Each structure stands twice: as structure tokens, then as C-alpha cells.
Amino acid sequence: MKTVKGVVLMRKFLVTILTIFAIVGIFAAGGKLVIAMETEPVGLDPHLVTAFASHRILENVYDSLLKYGEGMKLVPNLAEEAQAVDPYTIVFKIREGVKFHDGTPLTIEDVLFSFQRILNPDTKSPAAAFYQDVESIKAIGDNKIEFKLKKPMASALLPNFAGVNSSIVSKKFVESAKNMQLETNGTGPFYLAEYVPGNYITLKKNPYYYVKDQPYVDEIKIVFMPEEVSRVAALKNGDVDIAKINEPLNLKQFPEGKFKVYRSPVLSYYLIGINTTRKPLNDPRVRNALNYAINREAIIKAVAFSEGVVTGPLNPAVQPWALQPKAFDEYTYNPAKAKELLAQAGYPNGFEFEIVTSQRYNFDKVAQVIQAQLAEVGVKVKINLVEWGIFIKRWRESDFDAFISMNSGSIEPDIQFYRTFHTGGSTNVFLYSNPRVDELLDLGRSEVDISKRKAIYDELQRLLVKESPIIFLYSANQIFVSNASVEGFKLLANESLVFLRETYKK
Amino acid sequence: MSFGYLIRRVITSIPTILFVAFLVFIVMHLVPGDVVDMMLGTQNYLTQEQIQELYRQYGLDKPLIVQFGIWLKNLAALDFGTSLRTGKKVIDLIFDRFPVTLELSVLSMFFATIIGIPLGITAAIKRNSFLDGLVRVIGLIGLSSPSFWVGAILIVIFAGLFEEFNIFGYVPLKENFLKNLQVMFLPSLTLGLMLSAQIMRMTRSSMLDVLQQEYIKTAKAKGVSYSKVIGKHALKNALIPIITLSGIQLGYLLAGTIVIENMFALPGLGRLLLQAVNERDYPVIQFVVMFIAFLIVALNIIVDFIYTFVDPRVELR
To answer: Hey, are the CB atoms on B265 and A199 less than 8 Å from each other?
Structure first.
């Protein structure tokens, strides 16, 4: 039988196309740094953004008065000096000779304007909540700015000045009616040269940056690749230099010598949040029984392939205020004790409750492991997997028995605890209320003496574990991989990428 | 084919598109979690008054039907809305994203047809042979494999075999033609492979039908060469169902291939829509879906017109 001519033609055609594609392959990447991230920013106004992906970009474009250095130490940034003169007063001395990306010099006016903009209720800045106890802000001379506080909380307030939401913006730029969600003009090491939504962001070296030799590279391209398999392939293939890796299993694909692996503990933590007003979980003994029945190490092994640490109310790997999880009896796996507590509370045969969670960051897998662990002490868990939007709605309305999620933490215990555990706090969706906890939170906020403050937060941590409105689980390592030519890349516990300014390729 | 027919089709399709828009509007607003929830996430930093103010600003405090009315009114004034989350004009977003999806769709259809049609013809000619069986089995595998799996396998194979091959890093066609083709190759091959299975099966069965017709025997009997019998007499008549199928498939492709665009990090319409749904960015969802409905309706009309070229007996009235 004869072959059909058309088929032969098509075959020739296909071969030709494949050849063309292969030849084109010789085009290789240039000398700039290319990073693959999973998510892209949602808006670019530093005072408004809440998306984590926006923060990671903007912290390289804008500067705040302070910043986090290695080991999450607060270091000067646009403020040359920061001084808590007394518990009610903070004075910043503004750095001289700093210029915005458009070439205009930074003045005390810009700094004042930035905080006025944050505090203006019309702006709806998330940072406004941090500064609600600020009484007044005024300039002293032409290079100092003074914050007067209503409560003696100067040192607890300081870390807020390092956040992206407290960035210093140009008064002239904002007032010229630009849309700050679309355009940027900061003082940071890079300026935003191009943003192609759904594709990439290009950051270019700011020639005016106040640190003379930084940044080390001329250009950083951040490409958005939502799928892990793509990020892994792009890194192996040389399409990108650095990639965020979420699944520790994928690390096996990166042989040592050809690639470098970066991992660090983080402040954010996995938790079971409990509605403390619903039976039977309104009984602290019942909540504590769950504490004993949960084997945290097993969760880390099963879900995070051992890339994580058990955490208490504060993560001991990154927070100097933290008590070791081992210091809490409740955090030692002890199913017999769990059963005993359940019996005391009147549930010798266990009970049933629902965990609401969503299919992101492995929440669903954590829920499954916990379901299996609790079954061993007779507690039946119904897992309700919902879409993230539905999750948030239920979270906000405290419409749950319990949920599994992740909270962002802080190196400042006041920031991490206050609105989460204070009666009526804005993120206290657990509807938790304990007068002693409220008292400790208020004391800790204003205590200046370090050792007294430590004692306050020690008691608070113990109380929070004993009462367990939240069951703290673990903190997963953040992991990045780069090819071997990348130097100077470092991670921080708040998952920021400020060290990109010191990163370069050999 | 008449001009009057075209006008009639266009006019009757307007209610369809508006109905789709209405449906999407209602469904998106009934789903729990709105744009403000997504913005606040689990941070909840605003006071209750500020949250209410935000709803007012976005016009979300009004009854649903009023909101839809406002949207229609703006649409009539050619104001297609602004993204609530990014502040960008929706129409600009579509102009940015649609070319990517269009190119991906056309390239995928290209791969699907150059793989599917010849294989289908071959299988029909050599009916019940080993080759036919093989093609059918491969077709079945193609039909039942999910795109994320095929895509992942292709990525792994290509990343391993051709280190110099750019799999990722989309650049527009007009910026760098060759690099663009290179980046589009794998995603369109993935989609093309999967679609080719359907086209192959349709071609095969359609060809089998035609090959049994009397006029084919006549053609053979009067000594027409074999390739001419297949290529001219049989294939042309077998094409109608294939065109219908391809039209429908192209419609699906243009609706944005969410999975493939995500996997290959392509800034297309599907990814825009997915992100908008995740953020509950109503104006974006609303217009993107309407735009897709418009495309599918338009495509259907075009397919009807193509019939008249392929088969002169078809007349559109």
C-alpha cells in the first residue's frame, strides 16, 4: 500500500520545526540575576499592600526608617539613629544625602508626610493599627523626627518602623496624583524598571542608593512561576539563577557542587485555631488533651520531610523571647494523659469536631496527620476543605470549631500576641478572653526593663499553652536553591529578600 | 451565505453573552468571601467603619441587581471597569493577556491537527491493522491523561535532554520571534498532543464513513490515483465534523488554559482569570468571562461560515 503524501510532508515539516526550535535554544540568559517566585505582587503602594509577594518586591524598592539585618537585628536604615529617649518618646535622626529614584532629595517633610499618610483613616493602611497609640509626630530641626506615645511602649513599637508598610514615600510624588498601586518612587537599592503582570518584574540598580557600593548587580528579574515543577526545571535548565522551593523532596534534584541550597527557620507558624466558645472545645482541659494527643515531630516528618521545628507560642529558633517547646509538658506527646484529661472533662469516649482548612501550604496534609493522631485518643475529626476565600470569610466570622492555618509571627512578642489574644483583639477570632492574659499583654507592651519584660512574656507563654486557644504546631523552613555561581544570597526569618542587594554572580 | 444571516446571528448572540455576564455576576457575588475579605486575609487590620467605607467605595454595599445595572450602564458607555486590586484598567489587562492565549491556542490547534489528522487518516485506511490498534490506544491515552501530568513529563524530558532549550521566560512575539516560539513550543505541544487524540478519533471514524460510500468505489473504479481518492474525494467530505470539533476545541483553548498557563508561567487570559477569581476581583472576572463568551459565540459563527466553503451544499439562510 502507498503512503499518503500528506503524511510524509507533515513529517518533514515537523522535523524542520523541531530543528528550528533546537537551533534557537542556543540563545542563553545574560549576566543579570533571575529569580523564580511562586506568587506575584498584588498592588505596589507600600502603605497599602498586604500580599506577601508585594512586600518582597517593595522592600527592595522602598526604605523604611529601620530595617532588619542578619539574625533579624534591627539596624538603622533611612534613620541614621533611633533612640527611645524614654518609654513615651522615640527620636529618629534622618540620614542626609539620600535621594529618591527620581533624583529628588529626601527631606524631613517626606518622612512626616509618610506617617501622616499612614495614619490618615482614608488611606486605610494596615500600618495605621501599629501606630494607633502615637500621640503626636513632629519634626525637630531639619533632620530629626519625634514620636510621642500615649502609652509607654517605645521599644515594643520600634520593629514596626522596619516594615514595608512604614516605608518613606516622596510627598511630591504622592501629591502629583500618581496611582501608587501602579507606580513606585522609593529610596531603596533598586528601582522598579518594568512590571509585566503574569510574567515578571525587573528591578534595576538605583544609582543614587545611599550605600555606595550596593546593590552588587545591575538588574534583577523576578519571574512568577506558580508551579513548583516549573521552578525546579527552570533552575536546573539555567533559565533562572535562584528559585523558591516548597517541597523538600525536590531538593534531591539539585546535586551539591552544581547548586546551593539555602534554608532558614521562619517566624510564621502552623497552628490549630480553636473557637473557645463552642462546646466541648470551650473547656481548656479538652483543648489541652488535644495538645497531648498531637505528635508534632511526626507532623514535621510526614508533611515537611523534617524541614521544620516544633514551635511554642514563640519560635525558639528565631525569637529571643521564646521558651523552649520542651519546657511545656503539654507539648510532649502523651496519648494516655490526653485520655485522662478527656475523661476528667466528661468525654471518656472522645468527641467529634470539625476542622476547617484550605488546600494551600500543605494545610490539608497537616489536617490529615492530625486527624489520624486524634483518632488514637478517640477524638473524631471531620476535615472540611474549603476554598481560600470561603476560609477567610469563616475565619473572620469565627464560624468554625477549629481551623488549620498559618500565622505570620514577629520578633517582637507584643506585635505577635497583642491583637491575637487580647480580649476583642482584631485577629482574636478564637473569641478568647482571659483577664490575666489581657493584663500581661498590657504590662508587656509598656515594660522597659528587659528582665521584667522577659518574666511577663514567660508567664504569658505558659498561660497560652495551658489554655491553648491556639495549638501551636511547627514552623517550616523556607528553602531556596541557586546555581553555584550565585554569591551573597541570604535568607531572613521574616522571609524577606533584602539581601538581594548583596547578591551577585561569580 | 448572506449578509442578512450574519446580522441575524450577531443580534441573536447578544442576549447569550449578556446572560453569561449576568450568571457570572450572580455566582461570583454569591460565593462566600469577597474582595475585601481577600484583601484583609487573616490580618484584619481595619476597623469596622473602615471596612464598611471600603465596601461603599467599591460600590459593593448596593443590592446585587443595582450593581449589575451599574455595570451594564458602564459597559454601554464603553467603560469596562478597573481592577479593584491592582488599579489597572480591565481592558488593558485583556489587551496584555489575550495575545498570549491566542498564540497558544493557534499553535496548539496547529500541533493537534498536524498530529491528529494524518494519524486518523492512516488508521482509517489501515483499518483493523496493528497500526490502527496502536493509534487508537495512543489516542485513548491522550484522551485520558490530565494536562498537568503530560506537561510535567514534557518539562522533565526537555529540561533533561536539551539544556540549552528555553522552556520558561515568556517574551512577546514581536519582541523576540525565535525565543517566543521556543517558549511556546512545549505548552502548545502539551495541549496539541491532548487535543490531537480527539481529532484523530474523529478523523478516523469520519473517514471510515466516507470510504464506504459508493462514490469512492466509483472514483477508484475509474482509475483515480489512490492518494487523490483519499486526499480529494474522501478527506474533503470527512472534514465537516472535524472542523466542528476543532472549532469547539479552539473555543475551549481561547477560554484560557488555566492549568497549562500556570505550569509554563505564561501570562495569558486563563492565568489572569484564575488570579482574579482568587482575589475576587469582580470587574476583572466579569469582563474576562464576557470576553470569552463573545469569542466562543464569534467562533461558532465563523465555523458555520467555513462549512459553506468546504461543502457547497451547506447554505446559510
So the answer is: yes
**8 Å CB contact of A179 and B87:** yes
Residue B25 and residue B316 in contact, taking contact as beta carbons nearer than 8 Å: no
Question: For residue A14, what is the nearest residue in chain B, using CA coordinates?
Answer: B114
Cα–Cα distances in angstroms (integers) from residue B302 to residues B16, B240, B250, B296, B305, in the given order: 17, 13, 12, 10, 5
Q: Please judge whether B114 and A10 are an interchain contact, meaning their C-beta atoms are less than 8 angstroms apart.
A: yes
Tell how far CA A5 is from the center of its chain: 61
Alpha carbon of B200: minimum distance to chain A alpha carbons (Å): 13
Chain A residues whose beta carbon lies within 8 Å of the beta carbon of residue B230: 4
The residue behind cell 537551533 is: A23
Q: Tens digits of per-residue pLDDT, B72-113?
A: 899 888 888 888 888 888 999 999 899 999 999 999 999 999
Pairing of strands A89-94, A134-140: unpaired
Which tens digits make up the pLDDT trace of B158-210? Answer: 877 777 777 888 888 888 888 888 889 999 999 998 889 889 989 999 988 88
> From the CA of A336, how many Å to the nearest CA of chain B?
35
Dump pLDDT digits (tens) for B25-45: 998 888 888 888 888 887 767
Where residue A245 falls (left for φ over 0; alpha for ψ -120 to 50; beta otherwise) is beta
CA A313 – CA A323 distance, rounded (Å): 8
Contacting residues for B241 by C-beta, under 8 A, at least 6 apart: B202, B206
pLDDT in tens, A399-408: 999 999 998 8
Angle in degrees, CA A46, A65, A205, rounded to 5:
65
Neighbour tally for A157: CB within 10 Å: 22
pTM of the full structure: 0.83
Q: How far is A418 from chain B (nearest CA, A)?
A: 13
Q: What pLDDT does B316 receive?
A: 66
3-class SS at A74? strand
Is A5 an interface residue toward B (CB < 8 Å)? Answer: yes
Q: Pick the residue with more confidence: B309 or A189? A: A189
Residue position matching grid coordinates 514551635: A311
* Interface membership of A26 toward B (CB under 8 Å): yes
The backbone torsions φ and ψ at residue A63, rounded to the nearest 5 degrees and listed phi first, read -120, 150
Smallest CA-to-CA distance from A221 within A190, A200, A196 is with A200
B155 CA: distance to closest CA in chain A (Å): 7
What is the maximum span of chain A, computed from C-alpha positions, in angstroms? 97
